[in-house]
Protein backbone atom coordinates (compact mmCIF):
# COMPACT_ATOMS: atom_id res chain seq x y z
CA UNK A 1 0.00 0.00 0.00
CA UNK A 2 2.85 2.36 0.87
CA UNK A 3 4.41 1.65 -2.51
CA UNK A 4 1.12 2.42 -4.28
CA UNK A 5 0.74 5.65 -2.31
CA UNK A 6 4.23 6.73 -3.26
CA UNK A 7 3.53 6.01 -6.88
CA UNK A 8 0.32 8.06 -6.76
CA UNK A 9 2.13 10.99 -5.16
CA UNK A 10 4.89 10.78 -7.75
CA UNK A 11 2.39 10.80 -10.63
CA UNK A 12 0.51 13.75 -9.14
CA UNK A 13 3.75 15.64 -8.71
CA UNK A 14 4.76 14.89 -12.28
CA UNK A 15 1.41 16.13 -13.64
CA UNK A 16 1.69 19.30 -11.57
CA UNK A 17 5.21 19.88 -12.78
CA UNK A 18 4.23 19.40 -16.38
CA UNK A 19 1.28 21.74 -15.93
CA UNK A 20 3.54 24.42 -14.51
CA UNK A 21 6.04 23.94 -17.30
CA UNK A 22 3.45 24.14 -20.15
CA UNK A 23 1.69 27.45 -20.73
CA UNK A 24 -2.10 27.37 -21.20
CA UNK A 25 -3.06 27.11 -24.90
CA UNK A 26 -4.39 30.43 -26.13
CA UNK A 27 -8.05 30.39 -27.17
CA UNK A 28 -8.95 32.06 -30.48
CA UNK A 29 -11.10 35.13 -29.79
CA UNK A 30 -13.24 34.61 -32.90
CA UNK A 31 -13.96 32.12 -35.66
CA UNK A 32 -14.64 33.17 -39.23
CA UNK A 33 -17.71 31.56 -40.83
CA UNK A 34 -20.04 32.00 -43.79
CA UNK A 35 -22.24 34.17 -41.60
CA UNK A 36 -19.42 36.40 -40.44
CA UNK A 37 -17.03 36.46 -37.49
CA UNK A 38 -18.34 34.69 -34.36
CA UNK A 39 -16.86 35.84 -30.98
CA UNK A 40 -15.75 33.01 -28.69
CA UNK A 41 -14.98 32.44 -25.01
CA UNK A 42 -13.22 29.21 -24.04
CA UNK A 43 -13.91 28.06 -27.61
CA UNK A 44 -17.67 28.51 -27.14
CA UNK A 45 -20.09 31.18 -28.37
CA UNK A 46 -19.02 34.16 -26.29
CA UNK A 47 -22.32 35.31 -24.82
CA UNK A 48 -26.09 35.18 -24.96
CA UNK A 49 -26.23 37.57 -27.90
CA UNK A 50 -23.92 35.32 -29.94
CA UNK A 51 -25.96 32.23 -29.07
CA UNK A 52 -29.11 34.10 -30.11
CA UNK A 53 -27.51 35.05 -33.41
CA UNK A 54 -26.69 31.38 -34.11
CA UNK A 55 -30.23 30.29 -33.27
CA UNK A 56 -31.58 32.93 -35.65
CA UNK A 57 -29.30 31.63 -38.39
CA UNK A 58 -30.40 28.07 -37.66
CA UNK A 59 -34.06 29.01 -37.89
CA UNK A 60 -33.51 31.06 -41.06
CA UNK A 61 -31.77 28.12 -42.74
CA UNK A 62 -34.54 25.80 -41.66
CA UNK A 63 -37.18 28.17 -42.99
CA UNK A 64 -35.39 28.31 -46.36
CA UNK A 65 -35.28 24.53 -46.61
CA UNK A 66 -38.85 24.14 -45.34
CA UNK A 67 -39.99 26.49 -48.12
CA UNK A 68 -38.54 24.09 -50.70
CA UNK A 69 -40.09 21.08 -48.98
CA UNK A 70 -43.53 22.70 -48.69
CA UNK A 71 -44.02 23.84 -52.31
CA UNK A 72 -46.13 20.84 -53.43
CA UNK A 73 -48.67 20.97 -50.61
CA UNK A 74 -48.91 24.77 -50.61
CA UNK A 75 -49.61 24.73 -54.36
CA UNK A 76 -52.55 22.34 -53.96
CA UNK A 77 -53.84 24.08 -50.83
CA UNK A 78 -53.96 27.36 -52.75
CA UNK A 79 -55.89 25.77 -55.59
CA UNK A 80 -58.37 24.18 -53.19
CA UNK A 81 -58.89 27.51 -51.44
CA UNK A 82 -59.54 29.27 -54.78
CA UNK A 83 -62.07 26.65 -55.89
CA UNK A 84 -63.96 27.08 -52.63
CA UNK A 85 -63.70 30.81 -52.00
CA UNK A 86 -63.71 32.19 -55.56
CA UNK A 87 -65.86 29.66 -57.45
CA UNK A 88 -68.00 28.32 -54.59
CA UNK A 89 -67.09 24.70 -55.35
CA UNK A 90 -68.15 21.98 -52.91
CA UNK A 91 -66.34 18.69 -52.36
CA UNK A 92 -68.35 16.96 -55.07
CA UNK A 93 -68.17 19.77 -57.64
CA UNK A 94 -65.82 20.09 -60.61
CA UNK A 95 -64.43 23.27 -62.14
CA UNK A 96 -63.69 23.41 -65.88
CA UNK A 97 -60.74 25.57 -66.97
CA UNK A 98 -60.89 25.96 -70.72
CA UNK A 99 -59.76 29.35 -71.99
CA UNK A 100 -56.37 30.98 -71.49
CA UNK A 101 -58.03 33.46 -69.13
CA UNK A 102 -59.52 30.60 -67.10
CA UNK A 103 -56.04 29.11 -66.73
CA UNK A 104 -54.13 32.29 -65.88
CA UNK A 105 -54.00 31.20 -62.24
CA UNK A 106 -52.44 27.78 -62.91
CA UNK A 107 -48.74 26.98 -62.80
CA UNK A 108 -47.65 26.10 -66.38
CA UNK A 109 -51.04 25.00 -67.66
CA UNK A 110 -51.30 23.92 -71.26
CA UNK A 111 -53.36 26.12 -73.58
CA UNK A 112 -54.83 23.41 -75.78
CA UNK A 113 -56.84 21.00 -73.64
CA UNK A 114 -59.47 21.77 -70.98
CA UNK A 115 -58.77 20.92 -67.33
CA UNK A 116 -61.58 19.52 -65.18
CA UNK A 117 -60.68 19.70 -61.48
CA UNK A 118 -62.18 18.68 -58.15
CA UNK A 119 -60.49 18.99 -54.74
CA UNK A 120 -62.52 17.03 -52.16
CA UNK A 121 -61.85 16.68 -48.44
CA UNK A 122 -62.31 13.01 -47.55
CA UNK A 123 -62.71 13.84 -43.86
CA UNK A 124 -66.05 15.43 -44.83
CA UNK A 125 -67.19 13.08 -47.58
CA UNK A 126 -65.93 9.76 -46.27
CA UNK A 127 -64.85 7.24 -48.95
CA UNK A 128 -65.58 8.91 -52.27
CA UNK A 129 -66.84 7.44 -55.53
CA UNK A 130 -65.49 8.82 -58.81
CA UNK A 131 -67.54 7.57 -61.74
CA UNK A 132 -65.02 8.22 -64.49
CA UNK A 133 -66.24 8.48 -68.09
CA UNK A 134 -64.91 6.53 -71.04
CA UNK A 135 -63.11 8.49 -73.74
CA UNK A 136 -59.82 10.06 -74.79
CA UNK A 137 -58.63 11.57 -71.50
CA UNK A 138 -55.58 11.83 -69.27
CA UNK A 139 -56.36 12.12 -65.59
CA UNK A 140 -56.22 10.70 -62.12
CA UNK A 141 -56.15 11.33 -58.40
CA UNK A 142 -53.21 12.79 -56.50
CA UNK A 143 -52.62 13.25 -52.80
CA UNK A 144 -51.93 16.73 -51.44
CA UNK A 145 -48.17 16.25 -51.66
CA UNK A 146 -48.84 15.94 -55.40
CA UNK A 147 -48.03 12.23 -55.56
CA UNK A 148 -50.14 10.05 -57.87
CA UNK A 149 -52.71 7.90 -56.09
CA UNK A 150 -54.04 6.44 -59.33
CA UNK A 151 -54.05 7.41 -62.98
CA UNK A 152 -57.33 7.36 -64.88
CA UNK A 153 -58.15 7.39 -68.56
CA UNK A 154 -55.71 6.21 -71.22
CA UNK A 155 -52.78 5.71 -68.81
CA UNK A 156 -54.92 4.39 -65.93
CA UNK A 157 -56.15 0.88 -65.14
CA UNK A 158 -59.38 1.59 -67.04
CA UNK A 159 -57.33 2.16 -70.26
CA UNK A 160 -59.73 4.85 -71.44
CA UNK A 161 -62.84 2.70 -70.94
CA UNK A 162 -63.96 4.49 -67.78
CA UNK A 163 -65.15 2.93 -64.55
CA UNK A 164 -66.00 3.50 -60.91
CA UNK A 165 -63.16 4.29 -58.55
CA UNK A 166 -63.50 4.43 -54.77
CA UNK A 167 -61.02 6.69 -52.96
CA UNK A 168 -60.49 5.82 -49.28
CA UNK A 169 -58.75 8.28 -46.96
CA UNK A 170 -56.43 7.82 -43.97
CA UNK A 171 -58.11 5.97 -41.10
CA UNK A 172 -61.23 5.20 -43.13
CA UNK A 173 -62.61 1.67 -43.41
CA UNK A 174 -62.25 0.17 -46.85
CA UNK A 175 -65.60 -1.18 -48.06
CA UNK A 176 -65.72 -4.76 -49.33
CA UNK A 177 -67.29 -3.93 -52.67
CA UNK A 178 -66.18 -5.51 -55.94
CA UNK A 179 -68.07 -2.93 -58.01
CA UNK A 180 -65.26 -0.39 -57.58
CA UNK A 181 -61.55 -0.02 -58.13
CA UNK A 182 -60.55 0.80 -54.56
CA UNK A 183 -57.51 3.00 -53.98
CA UNK A 184 -56.18 4.55 -50.78
CA UNK A 185 -55.01 8.13 -50.42
CA UNK A 186 -52.36 8.90 -47.77
CA UNK A 187 -53.78 12.43 -47.39
CA UNK A 188 -57.24 13.59 -46.34
CA UNK A 189 -57.51 16.15 -49.14
CA UNK A 190 -57.17 14.93 -52.71
CA UNK A 191 -56.85 16.34 -56.21
CA UNK A 192 -59.00 14.74 -58.90
CA UNK A 193 -58.53 16.08 -62.40
CA UNK A 194 -58.46 15.11 -66.03
CA UNK A 195 -57.81 16.60 -69.44
CA UNK A 196 -59.88 15.87 -72.52
CA UNK A 197 -57.61 14.87 -75.38
CA UNK A 198 -60.27 14.63 -78.11
CA UNK A 199 -60.13 17.84 -80.22
CA UNK A 200 -63.87 17.69 -80.99
CA UNK A 201 -65.55 20.30 -78.70
CA UNK A 202 -68.86 18.42 -78.81
CA UNK A 203 -67.29 15.18 -77.65
CA UNK A 204 -65.35 17.01 -74.96
CA UNK A 205 -68.53 18.65 -73.63
CA UNK A 206 -70.36 15.31 -73.56
CA UNK A 207 -67.48 13.59 -71.79
CA UNK A 208 -67.28 16.28 -69.11
CA UNK A 209 -71.03 16.05 -68.49
CA UNK A 210 -70.73 12.35 -67.65
CA UNK A 211 -68.26 12.57 -64.76
CA UNK A 212 -69.80 12.00 -61.33
CA UNK A 213 -68.41 12.37 -57.79
CA UNK A 214 -70.34 11.37 -54.66
CA UNK A 215 -69.81 9.87 -51.21
CA UNK A 216 -69.91 6.09 -51.11
CA UNK A 217 -72.47 6.37 -48.33
CA UNK A 218 -74.84 8.06 -50.83
CA UNK A 219 -74.29 5.59 -53.68
CA UNK A 220 -77.96 4.55 -53.75
CA UNK A 221 -79.12 8.13 -54.36
CA UNK A 222 -76.00 10.14 -55.27
CA UNK A 223 -76.00 13.93 -55.26
CA UNK A 224 -75.62 15.75 -58.54
CA UNK A 225 -72.09 16.79 -59.50
CA UNK A 226 -72.10 20.44 -60.47
CA UNK A 227 -69.84 21.65 -63.29
CA UNK A 228 -68.59 25.18 -62.59
CA UNK A 229 -66.51 27.63 -64.63
CA UNK A 230 -64.32 30.63 -63.66
CA UNK A 231 -66.49 32.99 -65.76
CA UNK A 232 -63.85 35.71 -65.84
CA UNK A 233 -63.14 35.75 -62.11
CA UNK A 234 -59.51 36.40 -61.18
CA UNK A 235 -57.91 33.63 -59.15
CA UNK A 236 -54.56 31.92 -58.54
CA UNK A 237 -53.07 28.77 -57.08
CA UNK A 238 -49.49 30.09 -57.40
CA UNK A 239 -47.80 29.79 -53.97
CA UNK A 240 -47.89 33.19 -52.25
CA UNK A 241 -44.91 35.16 -51.00
CA UNK A 242 -43.89 36.24 -47.50
CA UNK A 243 -45.82 35.33 -44.37
CA UNK A 244 -48.88 34.32 -46.43
CA UNK A 245 -46.94 31.31 -47.67
CA UNK A 246 -46.50 30.10 -44.08
CA UNK A 247 -50.10 30.84 -43.16
CA UNK A 248 -51.27 28.65 -46.00
CA UNK A 249 -48.78 25.94 -45.08
CA UNK A 250 -49.87 25.97 -41.44
CA UNK A 251 -53.55 25.71 -42.43
CA UNK A 252 -53.07 22.61 -44.58
CA UNK A 253 -50.65 20.94 -42.15
CA UNK A 254 -53.28 21.25 -39.44
CA UNK A 255 -55.73 19.37 -41.69
CA UNK A 256 -53.43 16.56 -42.78
CA UNK A 257 -51.67 13.64 -41.06
CA UNK A 258 -47.91 13.98 -40.68
CA UNK A 259 -46.00 11.62 -42.97
CA UNK A 260 -43.16 9.69 -41.36
CA UNK A 261 -40.72 11.18 -43.86
CA UNK A 262 -41.72 14.73 -42.82
CA UNK A 263 -41.26 14.53 -39.05
CA UNK A 264 -37.89 16.30 -39.11
CA UNK A 265 -39.36 19.14 -41.16
CA UNK A 266 -42.13 19.49 -38.61
CA UNK A 267 -39.44 19.70 -35.92
CA UNK A 268 -37.65 22.39 -37.93
CA UNK A 269 -40.84 24.45 -38.14
CA UNK A 270 -41.70 24.18 -34.44
CA UNK A 271 -39.32 26.95 -33.23
CA UNK A 272 -40.80 29.14 -35.98
CA UNK A 273 -44.34 28.81 -34.64
CA UNK A 274 -45.80 26.10 -36.89
CA UNK A 275 -46.79 23.09 -34.83
CA UNK A 276 -49.48 20.48 -35.25
CA UNK A 277 -52.48 21.19 -33.04
CA UNK A 278 -51.45 24.75 -32.17
CA UNK A 279 -52.43 28.15 -33.53
CA UNK A 280 -49.95 29.92 -35.77
CA UNK A 281 -49.18 33.25 -34.13
CA UNK A 282 -45.53 34.11 -34.86
CA UNK A 283 -43.80 36.82 -32.86
CA UNK A 284 -41.91 39.62 -34.62
CA UNK A 285 -38.64 37.69 -34.80
CA UNK A 286 -40.26 34.48 -36.04
CA UNK A 287 -42.15 36.45 -38.68
CA UNK A 288 -38.93 38.14 -39.83
CA UNK A 289 -37.08 34.83 -40.14
CA UNK A 290 -39.99 33.17 -41.97
CA UNK A 291 -40.24 36.02 -44.46
CA UNK A 292 -36.48 35.96 -45.07
CA UNK A 293 -36.55 32.18 -45.39
CA UNK A 294 -39.31 32.34 -48.00
CA UNK A 295 -37.42 35.01 -49.95
CA UNK A 296 -34.15 33.06 -50.11
CA UNK A 297 -36.00 29.76 -50.52
CA UNK A 298 -37.71 31.11 -53.61
CA UNK A 299 -34.39 32.18 -55.12
CA UNK A 300 -33.07 28.68 -54.49
CA UNK A 301 -36.20 27.21 -56.10
CA UNK A 302 -35.79 29.46 -59.14
CA UNK A 303 -32.23 28.20 -59.56
CA UNK A 304 -33.37 24.58 -59.38
CA UNK A 305 -36.26 25.21 -61.77
CA UNK A 306 -34.59 27.32 -64.42
CA UNK A 307 -30.89 26.39 -64.24
CA UNK A 308 -30.81 22.78 -63.14
CA UNK A 309 -27.38 21.62 -61.93
CA UNK A 310 -28.21 17.94 -62.44
CA UNK A 311 -26.14 16.82 -65.46
CA UNK A 312 -28.81 14.24 -66.30
CA UNK A 313 -31.49 16.92 -66.71
CA UNK A 314 -30.54 17.75 -70.32
CA UNK A 315 -32.58 16.07 -73.04
CA UNK A 316 -29.55 16.19 -75.33
CA UNK A 317 -26.05 17.50 -74.77
CA UNK A 318 -26.24 19.73 -77.88
CA UNK A 319 -29.14 21.94 -76.70
CA UNK A 320 -30.39 23.58 -73.51
CA UNK A 321 -33.75 21.83 -73.33
CA UNK A 322 -34.21 20.03 -70.02
CA UNK A 323 -36.59 17.32 -68.90
CA UNK A 324 -39.34 18.86 -66.80
CA UNK A 325 -39.52 15.60 -64.83
CA UNK A 326 -36.29 14.17 -63.44
CA UNK A 327 -37.80 12.06 -60.64
CA UNK A 328 -40.36 9.37 -60.00
CA UNK A 329 -43.76 10.97 -59.27
CA UNK A 330 -44.09 8.78 -56.15
CA UNK A 331 -41.24 10.88 -54.69
CA UNK A 332 -39.95 8.13 -52.38
CA UNK A 333 -38.19 5.76 -54.76
CA UNK A 334 -34.56 4.75 -54.14
CA UNK A 335 -32.27 5.67 -51.26
CA UNK A 336 -33.48 9.26 -50.89
CA UNK A 337 -36.53 11.42 -51.48
CA UNK A 338 -35.87 13.72 -54.47
CA UNK A 339 -35.98 17.10 -52.70
CA UNK A 340 -34.11 19.16 -55.31
CA UNK A 341 -35.81 17.44 -58.23
CA UNK A 342 -39.32 17.92 -56.90
CA UNK A 343 -38.55 21.52 -55.89
CA UNK A 344 -37.48 22.37 -59.42
CA UNK A 345 -40.66 20.83 -60.79
CA UNK A 346 -43.20 22.10 -58.25
CA UNK A 347 -41.87 25.66 -58.31
CA UNK A 348 -42.82 25.89 -61.97
CA UNK A 349 -45.56 23.29 -62.36
CA UNK A 350 -48.48 21.56 -60.66
CA UNK A 351 -49.73 17.95 -60.51
CA UNK A 352 -48.07 14.68 -61.45
CA UNK A 353 -49.24 11.39 -62.84
CA UNK A 354 -47.65 8.19 -64.07
CA UNK A 355 -48.77 9.14 -67.55
CA UNK A 356 -46.55 12.21 -67.42
CA UNK A 357 -43.44 10.04 -67.13
CA UNK A 358 -44.53 7.28 -69.48
CA UNK A 359 -41.92 5.14 -71.20
CA UNK A 360 -44.46 3.59 -73.55
CA UNK A 361 -44.36 5.12 -77.05
CA UNK A 362 -47.61 6.72 -78.17
CA UNK A 363 -49.09 6.97 -74.65
CA UNK A 364 -49.19 9.82 -72.12
CA UNK A 365 -47.23 13.04 -72.34
CA UNK A 366 -43.64 14.26 -72.27
CA UNK A 367 -42.27 17.70 -71.43
CA UNK A 368 -39.10 19.65 -72.17
CA UNK A 369 -38.40 23.14 -70.83
CA UNK A 370 -35.91 25.96 -71.09
CA UNK A 371 -35.48 29.49 -69.76
CA UNK A 372 -32.36 30.15 -71.85
CA UNK A 373 -31.48 31.16 -75.34
CA UNK A 374 -28.65 29.35 -77.12
CA UNK A 375 -25.83 31.40 -75.57
CA UNK A 376 -27.12 30.77 -72.04
CA UNK A 377 -28.74 34.15 -71.38
CA UNK A 378 -32.22 34.33 -69.85
CA UNK A 379 -35.00 34.65 -72.41
CA UNK A 380 -35.80 38.37 -72.65
CA UNK A 381 -39.31 39.58 -73.47
CA UNK A 382 -37.99 42.59 -75.37
CA UNK A 383 -36.06 40.48 -77.91
CA UNK A 384 -37.10 38.49 -80.97
CA UNK A 385 -36.40 34.75 -80.89
CA UNK A 386 -36.90 31.82 -83.23
CA UNK A 387 -37.40 28.13 -82.52
CA UNK A 388 -36.96 25.78 -85.46
CA UNK A 389 -39.12 22.68 -84.92
CA UNK A 390 -37.84 19.94 -87.24
CA UNK A 391 -40.26 17.82 -89.22
CA UNK A 392 -41.67 14.59 -87.88
CA UNK A 393 -41.87 15.71 -84.27
CA UNK A 394 -42.26 12.61 -82.06
CA UNK A 395 -45.86 13.15 -80.97
CA UNK A 396 -48.64 10.74 -81.94
CA UNK A 397 -51.41 13.22 -81.10
CA UNK A 398 -49.85 16.68 -81.29
CA UNK A 399 -47.08 18.91 -79.98
CA UNK A 400 -47.16 22.43 -78.56
CA UNK A 401 -44.85 25.24 -77.44
CA UNK A 402 -46.12 27.44 -74.61
CA UNK A 403 -44.52 30.52 -73.02
CA UNK A 404 -44.74 31.44 -69.33
CA UNK A 405 -43.87 34.32 -67.03
CA UNK A 406 -40.85 33.37 -64.86
CA UNK A 407 -42.24 35.44 -61.99
CA UNK A 408 -45.67 33.79 -61.78
CA UNK A 409 -44.89 30.57 -63.71
CA UNK A 410 -48.32 31.03 -65.26
CA UNK A 411 -49.13 32.12 -68.81
CA UNK A 412 -47.66 35.38 -69.99
CA UNK A 413 -50.62 37.74 -69.74
CA UNK A 414 -49.60 39.21 -73.06
CA UNK A 415 -52.55 39.98 -75.36
CA UNK A 416 -56.33 40.38 -75.18
CA UNK A 417 -56.55 37.31 -77.42
CA UNK A 418 -54.47 35.21 -75.03
CA UNK A 419 -51.94 33.90 -77.55
CA UNK A 420 -49.56 31.95 -75.33
CA UNK A 421 -48.81 28.90 -77.43
CA UNK A 422 -48.64 27.39 -80.88
CA UNK A 423 -49.33 23.76 -81.57
CA UNK A 424 -49.37 21.29 -84.42
CA UNK A 425 -53.17 21.30 -84.12
CA UNK A 426 -53.17 24.88 -85.40
CA UNK A 427 -52.83 26.09 -88.99
CA UNK A 428 -49.10 26.86 -88.86
CA UNK A 429 -46.96 28.10 -91.72
CA UNK A 430 -44.63 25.24 -92.63
CA UNK A 431 -41.31 25.08 -94.45
CA UNK A 432 -40.91 22.96 -97.58
CA UNK A 433 -39.46 20.06 -95.57
CA UNK A 434 -42.37 20.03 -93.11
CA UNK A 435 -40.48 21.81 -90.34
CA UNK A 436 -41.92 24.83 -88.55
CA UNK A 437 -40.32 28.09 -87.38
CA UNK A 438 -41.95 29.68 -84.34
CA UNK A 439 -41.33 33.33 -83.48
CA UNK A 440 -41.42 34.76 -79.94
CA UNK A 441 -41.27 38.55 -79.86
CA UNK A 442 -43.13 41.63 -78.54
CA UNK A 443 -44.25 42.68 -82.04
CA UNK A 444 -45.95 40.78 -84.85
CA UNK A 445 -43.43 39.47 -87.43
CA UNK A 446 -44.48 40.18 -90.99
CA UNK A 447 -45.70 37.06 -92.76
CA UNK A 448 -45.39 34.90 -89.66
CA UNK A 449 -48.53 35.88 -87.76
CA UNK A 450 -49.79 32.30 -87.49
CA UNK A 451 -46.47 31.16 -85.99
CA UNK A 452 -46.06 34.05 -83.54
CA UNK A 453 -46.24 34.00 -79.73
CA UNK A 454 -46.12 37.50 -78.19
CA UNK A 455 -43.76 38.32 -75.31
CA UNK A 456 -43.63 41.30 -72.94
CA UNK A 457 -40.68 43.74 -72.76
CA UNK A 458 -39.22 43.90 -69.27
CA UNK A 459 -40.25 40.35 -68.42
CA UNK A 460 -38.23 37.17 -68.58
CA UNK A 461 -40.03 34.09 -69.86
CA UNK A 462 -39.55 30.37 -70.19
CA UNK A 463 -40.98 27.77 -72.51
CA UNK A 464 -42.35 24.25 -72.30
CA UNK A 465 -42.43 21.98 -75.33
CA UNK A 466 -45.07 19.26 -74.93
CA UNK A 467 -45.38 15.94 -76.74
CA UNK A 468 -48.80 14.31 -76.52
CA UNK A 469 -48.34 10.62 -77.20
CA UNK A 470 -44.51 10.79 -77.40
CA UNK A 471 -43.08 8.32 -79.89
CA UNK A 472 -39.87 6.33 -80.10
CA UNK A 473 -37.63 9.08 -81.52
CA UNK A 474 -38.36 11.15 -78.40
CA UNK A 475 -37.36 8.34 -76.07
CA UNK A 476 -34.17 7.45 -77.94
CA UNK A 477 -33.43 11.17 -78.44
CA UNK A 478 -32.72 10.78 -82.13
CA UNK A 479 -35.07 13.70 -82.84
CA UNK A 480 -33.32 16.95 -81.99
CA UNK A 481 -35.09 20.05 -80.71
CA UNK A 482 -32.66 22.93 -81.32
CA UNK A 483 -32.07 25.85 -78.98
CA UNK A 484 -34.17 28.99 -79.03
CA UNK A 485 -32.03 31.58 -80.82
CA UNK A 486 -32.08 35.37 -80.92
CA UNK A 487 -33.20 36.42 -84.40
Automatic annotation (TrEMBL):
Residues 104-214 form the DUF1254 domain. Residues 365-472 form the DUF1214 domain. It comes from the Bacteria. InterPro entries: DUF1214 (IPR010621), DUF1214_C_sf (IPR037049), DUF1254 (IPR010679), DUF1254_sf (IPR037050). Residues 1-26 form the signal peptide. SUPFAM superfamilies: VPA0735-like. Keywords: Signal. PANTHER family: BLL3101 PROTEIN, SIGNAL PEPTIDE PROTEIN. This is DUF1254 domain-containing protein. It comes from Methylovirgula ligni.
Amino acid sequence: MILSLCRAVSIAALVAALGAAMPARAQAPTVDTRIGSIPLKFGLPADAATVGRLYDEMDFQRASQAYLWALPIVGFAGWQDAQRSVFGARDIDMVVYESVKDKLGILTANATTPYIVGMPDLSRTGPLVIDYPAGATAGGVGDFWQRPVTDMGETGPDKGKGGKYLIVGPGQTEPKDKNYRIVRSPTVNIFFAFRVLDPDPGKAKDLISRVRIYPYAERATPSQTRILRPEGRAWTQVPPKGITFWERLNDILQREPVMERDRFYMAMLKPLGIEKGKAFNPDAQQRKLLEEGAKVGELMAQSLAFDNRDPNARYRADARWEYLFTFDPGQDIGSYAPLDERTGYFYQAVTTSRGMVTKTPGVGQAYLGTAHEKDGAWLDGSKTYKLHVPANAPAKLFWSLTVYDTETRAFLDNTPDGIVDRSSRADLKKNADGSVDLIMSPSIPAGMESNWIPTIPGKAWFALFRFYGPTETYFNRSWKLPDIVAD
